[in-house]
Amino acid sequence: xxxxxxxxxxxxxxxxxxxxxxxxxxxxxxxxxxxxxxxxxxxxxxxxxxxxxxxxxxxxxxxxxxxxxxxxxxxxxxxxxxxxxxxxxxxxxxxxxxxxxxxxxxxxxxxxxxxxxxxxxxxxxxxxxxxxxxxxxxxxxxxxxxxxxxxxxxxxxxxxxxxxxxxxxxxxxxxxxxxxxxxxxxxxxxxxxxxxxxxxxxxxxxxxxxxxxxxxxxxxxxxxxxxx
Length: 228
Known about the structure:
Layout: E1 2-3, E2 7-12, E3 16-21, H1 37-48, E4 58-59, E5 68-74, H2 77-89, E6 93-101, E7 107-117, E8 120-124, E9 132-144, E10 147-154, H3 161-168, E11 192-200, E12 207-211, H4 220-223
């Protein structure tokens, strides 16, 4: 199902809405006034289920604007609370794929301390005021020429975490000029895609899993190598 012209609906029931965010779209509204996922999905729910007035939809996590992939929204406040707790307790499995510059390490766990200052995130010492622990596991799926395709599982959810941790290891994400990339993807977005989302249903407790292939702005020869 499609919401508008660009959002793919992957699952919906009385408690959950799972969608694919296209690259370049905001997760929620900001000062730009540009189209955002939360507003667009509220509009879709209102039309699909004939709900007049202000539709409730809980935002429990975000994706960076230039990234793409799976997002879950809560359709009730109870579901929002239970999903938020799953994200806090790290029982949600979030896996990403990224096309990066350089030769990425094959199989590693990365632990850093991050701080956000003036709209940028950087790695600091653990003792730095305001530093927050950032942890992920990564594995190289393929490498060719001066690029690598990597799989990432997040263990923490810090702003720009994957982007900064990749850049600090000399493998910035393709298209991420903010953090040192020299190769563009489509001129605006990043080759970073949330490809797997796994969580417990907030009421039935059933473990649920969704997968999503990279969007059309990825080079086809790399998108075809993504194992989802």
